[in-house]
Amino acid sequence: MNYHPEDIDLDDELDPTDEDFQSKTQIKQELKEITAFGVDLSELSIKNLKKLPLTESIIDAYGDLERIKGNEARKRHFKRIGKLLREVELEPIKLAFERYKRGLPLMEPKESEAEKWFDRLINKNENAELFIEQYPQCDRQQLRQLIRNTLKSPKKSKPKLLTYLDAVINT
Fold it and tell me: Staple 157 to which of 90, 97, 108, 149, CB 3.0 to 4.6 Å?
């Protein structure tokens, strides 16, 4: 069976007008950008890298980077890190790194249960009975006294109430 060039239709396989089509140059550019981002991430300490949603192999690769001294070896290693980064979702990592560059914590701090209850009891004026129902080990009299004191002088009593709520919740 002989094939003639006119029998093969290349247009069906590679259609540059297709919205999912990427040229080889575009793919290479994306890979370079990922590798460059990997170089930028090397600014972070291992402790901070562990806070990001990275795999253990990526964190280990950054750990290995500390002992690599040669320029060419570092370059190859960053390519390896870039290859590993292609396997993870980069958007949350990029957002966290942007936060770091602006001097903010890497990840958004999550509001603790005690802070949520503080907000409900003080700012939304909810009844203390709701908290007491959920946490029956709570000292009703002490809780009400702390709430009253916090409403009178918030700056002075807020830490006391938060500490008490946290202690009750975590017992």
Answer: 149
Residue 33 shares a structural domain with residue 90: yes
Same domain, 47 and 94: yes
Q: Which domain holds residue 75?
A: 24-101
pLDDT tens string 138-159: 898 999 899 889 888 888 888 8
pLDDT at 78: 93
Residue 1, domain member (yes or no): no
Q: What whole-number distance in Å separates Cα of residue 60 and Cα of residue 28?
A: 25
Answer whether residue 91 is part of any domain. yes
Long-range contacts (CB closer than 8 Å, 24 or more residues apart) made by 73-82: 78/35, 78/38, 78/39, 78/42, 79/35, 81/35, 81/38, 81/41, 82/31, 82/34, 82/35, 82/37, 82/38
* Length of the chain in terms of residues written: 171
Tell me which DSSP letter residue 123 carries. Answer: I
